[in-house]
From TrEMBL:
Co-factor: note: Binds 1 [4Fe-4S] cluster.
Top EC class of this enzyme: hydrolase
One Pfam family this sequence matches: HHH
Known catalytic reactions: Hydrolyzes free adenine bases from 7,8-dihydro-8-oxoguanine:adenine mismatched double-stranded DNA, leaving an apurinic site
Cofactor section: [4Fe-4S] cluster
Family of this protein: Belongs to the Nth/MutY family.
Full protein name: Adenine DNA glycosylase
Function: Adenine glycosylase active on G-A mispairs. MutY also corrects error-prone DNA synthesis past GO lesions which are due to the oxidatively damaged form of guanine: 7,8-dihydro-8-oxoguanine (8-oxo-dGTP).
Species per Swiss-Prot/TrEMBL record: Winogradskyella litoriviva
Keyword line: 4Fe-4S, DNA damage, DNA repair, Glycosidase, Hydrolase, Iron, Iron-sulfur, Metal-binding
Domain HhH-GPD: 35-186
Recorded superkingdom: Bacteria
Annotated EC: 3.2.2.31
Length: 347
DNA sequence: AAGGCGGGGTC
DNA sequence: GACCCAGCCTT
């Protein structure tokens, strides 16, 4: 048996039952692929279930507000995916009369759809011969062929795409693409791959050369920056609270949070008080404040470590921009904020 | 070509 | 801690 046949054979025996494998509907395939970008199946699955339940068709998704979509996306991360998902849904529903682009070239034009996702949708939903190259494919091919070209270099990207295109089963591109990804996810894993019971035991170059552990090669470690966040949890006597939208570019764009003061270091209560003398928000208000967490809550993103303090500020009356405390759970927020809301006892 | 963008899981 | 995940976008 050749490479593709062994892979498809392994897949037929070992594949998981997943909801997006029961359909050829491009809307559902697209939704699953966006959710699964840089996200493991276990983490993305409940979101797929929730989205298909609330938005059965692309018209339902298009009719929603961005805030509503972000709320359902809350906790999944990489929120530009949700913003692009919603924008693309509106585009397809309104400009294309709900008719999904049906080929790689046209799919690639959609917001949030790159080479991988266009290949996945066109092959799985439309049986187009377009090879997917995701993290699993890089790993499987790098090991099987013993390729040490860095997978995130320009030459590496081209080399692996070319190889994947040569290997794809042109009769069953949909099955083949899912098979190689599933094989990478379940069998040819990053750590402790199951090499002792592998259909490619005799043909895997990395296994013969004892280089399974070192492949694939990847360059450029992301450097982590540290930031200090001070959230102002301002509550008035009418149980209203300040909550605002992060409109600027950067992390958590269009999600909501308490007013934020970033500082150069972790602040003591005295330093925080000095800071507030010049704060335009608090200048005009008489208030009492206390600190929710004595030691910083450390929220780790892939590229930022956020050392966070929540300052509880009680005032008599907040401006009209404040929202009722009861409504706070309607807004999409970062996990850092929703964790606080879930643990803090509002009076 | 390089860096930004989340949160959770594994070892 | 380091690394990874059905990557994409901007600069």
């Amino acid at each position: 048996m050749d490479f593709k046949s062994k892979l498809i054979n392994w897949y037929s025996i070992n594949k998981r039952e997943l909801p997006w494998r029961k359909t050829k509907n491009p809307y559902n395939i697209w939704l699953s692929e966006i959710i699964l970008q840089q996200t493991q199946v276990k983490q993305g699955l409940p979101y797929y279930v929730a989205f298909t339940a609330k938005y059965p068709t692309i018209f339902d998704l298009a009719a929603a507000s961005e805030t509503e979509v972000l709320k359902l996306w809350q906790g999944l991360g990489y929120y530009s995916r949700a913003r692009n998902l919603h924008a693309t849904a509106k585009y397809i529903a309104n400009e294309l009369n709900g008719e999904f682009p049906n080929n790689y070239k046209d799919l690639l034009k959609l917001k949030g759809v790159g080479d991988y996702t266009a290949s996945a949708i066109s092959s799985i939903a439309f049986n187009e011969i377009a090879a997917v190259v995701d993290g699993n494919v890089y790993r499987v091919l790098a090991r099987y062929f013993g390729i040490d070209t860095p997978i995130n270099s320009t030459t590496g990207i081209k080399e692996f795409k070319k190889l994947a295109t040569q290997l794809i089963d042109t009769k069953k591109p949909d099955v083949y693409n899912q098979a190689i990804m599933e094989f990478g996810a379940l069998h040819c894993k990053p750590k402790n791959p199951n090499c002792t019971n592998c259909p490619f035991e005799t043909s895997c170059v990395a296994l013969q050369k004892n280089s399974v552990e070192t492949l694939p090669v990847k360059l450029n470690k992301t450097k982590v920056t540290t930031k200090y966040f001070n959230f102002l949890v301002c509550i008035d006597s009418e149980n209203r609270i300040l909550f605002e939208k992060r409109t600027h570019k950067g992390i958590w764009q269009n999600l909501y949070q308490f007013p934020l003061i970033e500082s150069e270091k972790s602040l003591s209560s005295e330093e925080f008080q000095l800071l507030n003398i010049d704060n335009s928000l608090l200048k005009t208000l008489k208030f009492d404040y206390s600190l929710y967490n004595e030691s910083d809550i450390v929220h780790k993103l892939s590229h930022q470590h956020l050392y966070t303090k929540f300052w509880i500020i009680e005032v008599n009356k907040l401006p009209q921009t404040a929202i009722p405390l009861d409504s706070i759970t309607n807004y999409p927020t970062p996990v850092l904020i929703s964790d606080f809301i879930n643990h803090f006892s509002f009076k």
